[in-house]
Each structure stands twice: as structure tokens, then as C-alpha cells.
Write a structure and sequence with these properties.
Helix content is 32%, strand content 29%. It has 9 helices and 13 strands. Helix 4 runs parallel beside helix 9. The N terminus is likely disordered.
């Protein structure tokens, strides 16, 4: 299902570089000289690492450069300040694959928000190791592939998965409660392009059964965490987190039920920010521009 988008035809420039005087002035002057009407501008400085981060967005209306021309002419400034940078338009929609297992609450929430044009992306395929969500995918008219996974067929399953991702030209993978660990081979194909939802407030209670771990520890707050996937289990750069209070009266099932709403909103926010190009990654951390 392709969806229509309500986003403006804007241009977004993301920058990270060593901090020094003149960065903002040089970028702003360059944009002014070419007729840019700046809509949003935000910046952050990591004093400890002396790193500067910037996101700036402007309208194409009245701007006298194409994106290709911008890339050529901006190089001089980028080299001067040793920038890592990228430019995208708000109409460059991420092509998304959602992985899911038996629990489909996060998937259902994302598909509804997608139909309501709340996500700047195209969800092209849903991949699962169970048939549970097949009817849900059919309701939204999105291709659904069931690829069973066990200890004997894992390599074959991942090969099939990678072929599907290539077929649908995927550039963002969302693990919507996909209860399988991706191999390093899959992760290396999509660096900083895989977003996971973990049902705890990381770094507490990583790995399996975090609600059970939280219950046994007697915590008074539970949380959910969205993060990029790396080779380390639940150790990738954190994008978003949220929490909810619980009490001694809550059993494990109560924690699971209360946690579902957190998982849905935390995963949605992470995907929204990624697809709107609001995230810069460094030193296993993220800068998320509002």
C-alpha cells in the first residue's frame, strides 16, 4: 500500500563536525545567498568531545539550487569545517520493512498511524516467523512473508530475508517485537538502519523476559526503549525512552499489559524521528532534534 503524504517540499541538512567559530554563520550565509527561507534550525554542542551538531530545514520555494547543485557547491564549506553531512528532501520517503513475531500490538499501532499519514515512509513489506499477523497485513494490503526460524535453519532463513529486503529495496528495518536476534551479517547490511523496541528502560533488564526481571527486582517504574540495532544485544544507540509507575500490587501480567502502550508510543516516536531525518548518531549515542 502506497500512501499519500502531507509533508511540505522542504530540504533538510544534517551536519556533525568538530566545533569551531563560524559554522552557523557560514551555513546561514550560504543559504541566504541562494534564496533559502529557513523554517527550522537547531543545534547541539557536545563540550566533552568538542563536536557540533546541526539540523536546518528550508523551503524549496525560491531556492535557486537543485539538491544536486547544492551538493556540489556546499563542498567548500564542508571541507573547511571537516563536516560529516547529508542533505535530503522531506519527500524522500524511507522504504520500510517491519519484522514481527506473535505479539502484534506494535505492528497494529504502526499500521494505523501509517494509514493516517503520521509516518513519512512507505511500509513495503511485513516479515514474520509466525502466521499471527497475516490477516492484519492483509487488511492494510501490505505484502506478508512468513519465514520460520529455528536453530537448524537460521542461516537459510536470513538468506531468504535478505533477498526479500533487496527485492523491496528496503532502507529501514523496524523490529516491532520481533523476538529473534539478528546475526551480525544482517546488521552489517543495514548499519544504523534497524530500529528495535525493547520492553524495558535500558540499560536495565536487557535480554529476554525483562518484565519478569523487573517484577523479581521489585521496581516501581517500568519502561520501554527504542534503539538502533548493533552487534551487541540491546546495546545500540538509544533513540527514545518512556516510563510508567507500577506498584507492589502489580503482577507480571499487569506489567506486560501496562508496558504495551509504552512500547507502541516509544517505537512510533523513534520511527517518526528517523524518517523525518531528526537523528544524528555519534559515540553510540544519538542527538534527536525536535
Amino acid at each position: 500500500m502506497e500512501t499519500a503524504f502531507l509533508y511540505e517540499n522542504n530540504v533538510i541538512l544534517l551536519i556533525s563536525c568538530p566545533d569551531r567559530r563560524g559554522i552557523v554563520a557560514s551555513v546561514s550565509q550560504f543559504l541566504y545567498d541562494h534564496g533559502a527561507n529557513i523554517i527550522h534550525a537547531d543545534q547541539h554542542l557536545d563540550d566533552e568531545l568538542n563536536l557540533f551538531f546541526m539540523r536546518i530545514e528550508w523551503s524549496l520555494n525560491g531556492f535557486d539550487l537543485t539538491v544536486k547543485e547544492f551538493r556540489q557547491r556546499f563542498k567548500q564549506i564542508a571541507l573547511k569545517f571537516k563536516m560529516n553531512w547529508r542533505i535530503v528532501t522531506s519527500k524522500d520517503h524511507s522504504k520500510v520493512a517491519i519484522f514481527v513475531s506473535r505479539q502484534d500490538h506494535c505492528l497494529a499501532d504502526l499500521l494505523y498511524r501509517y494509514r493516517q499519514n503520521e509516518l513519512n515512509c512507505n511500509i513495503r513489506v511485513i516479515i514474520s516467523n509466525h502466521p499471527t499477523a497475516k490477516k492484519l497485513a492483509g487488511f492494510y494490503n501490505i505484502p506478508y512473508y512468513e519465514i520460520p526460524i529455528n536453530k537448524n535453519n537460521r542461516k537459510i532463513s536470513e538468506k531468504k530475508t535478505l533477498l526479500l529486503l533487496k527485492k523491496f529495496d528496503i532502507d529501514l528495518i523496524v523490529l516491532a517485537r520481533f523476538m529473534q536476534i539478528l546475526s551480525a551479517d544482517v546488521v552489517k547490511h543495514y548499519p544504523n538502519k534497524i530500529i528495535n523496541i525493547h520492553h524495558s528502560f535500558l540499560p536495565a533488564f536487557s535480554g529476554a523476559n525483562p518484565y519478569f526481571q523487573a517484577y523479581n527486582r521489585g521496581v516501581k517504574i517500568i519502561g520501554a526503549t527504542s534503539h538502533y540495532v548493533t552487534d551487541g544485544l540491546d546495546e545500540g544507540p538509544i533513540i527514545e525512552q518512556d516510563v510508567i509507575r507500577i506498584s507492589h500490587r502489580d503482577e507480571v501480567d499487569d506489567l506486560v499489559a501496562k508496558g504495551r502502550d509504552l512500547e507502541k508510543i516509544v517505537l512510533f516516536r523513534a520511527i517518526q524521528w528517523h524518517t523525518e531525518n531528526r537523528i544524528l548518531i555519534y559515540s553510540n549515542k544519538t542527538v534527536v532534534f525536535s
